[in-house]
Amino acid sequence: MEAQPLGVEGILFTIVRELGIVGVFAASFLGASSIFIPIPYHVLIFWVGANTNYNVYVVVAAAGLGSALGEMVGYGAGYAAKRVFGENRRRKLDAMLKVLLRHRKVWPLLVFIFAFTPLPDDIIFVPLGILRMDFLRVFIPCILGKLAMFYVLVAGGRYLGDVARGVLSGGEVNLLITIASIIIFVIILVAMLKIDWEKILAKYEGYLSRFESFSSQL
In this structure, is residue 2 part of a structural domain? Predict the structure, then answer.
C-alpha cells in the first residue's frame, strides 16, 4: 500500500493495513454500523482492491459480512427503540407490519437494492427494526446485496489500478448525505406513527376477504 487517505478513511486504512483481511472485516463493520453519519468505507474497499494482492473473493466475503453485520446495528437500534413507544403506537406498528407482510416478496428485493447501492441504508433498516421484521428476512438480502456491491468495487479497483488512489469522498458530500438521511428517516418515522395502520389493515383484509369469496364462486 502507498499513499494513505486522510480523516476517517485514514483510520480505517490503518486498521486494514495492520490487520489485513481481518481489518477489512472490522473497517466494513465499523463503517456500516454508523447510524445516519456516512463513513466512506466503500471507497476504502475499492482502494484495497486496487492496491493489494489479496484474493478478490476473500476481500469481498470479509467486507460483505462485516458491512451486513454493521447494518444490523441500525436494525437492532430500531428493534430496541420500539420499547419506548406507548401501547397505542405499538398496536399501530404491529398493524403496519401485518400490512407490509402482505407484500412479503417486495421487502427482500427492497433491502437488497438498498444494500447493493449507495442509498443510505439506515432509512430502511432502522424502521424495519422498529417494526421488528423477521431478522433473517432482513439479513439475508442485506448480505447478498453487500456481497454483490463489494464484488463490483473490489474487482473494479483491481482492474482500474492507480485511478482508485484518487477516489475519496468529500466532507461536504457526506454532510449532505447525513442531513438527507435524517430528514427522510424522520418523514418515514412520522408516517409510521401517525397513520392509522389498524384501519388500513382492516380495510385491506376486508377487500381481500371479498376477493377470496368472489374467487371461490368462480
Answer: no
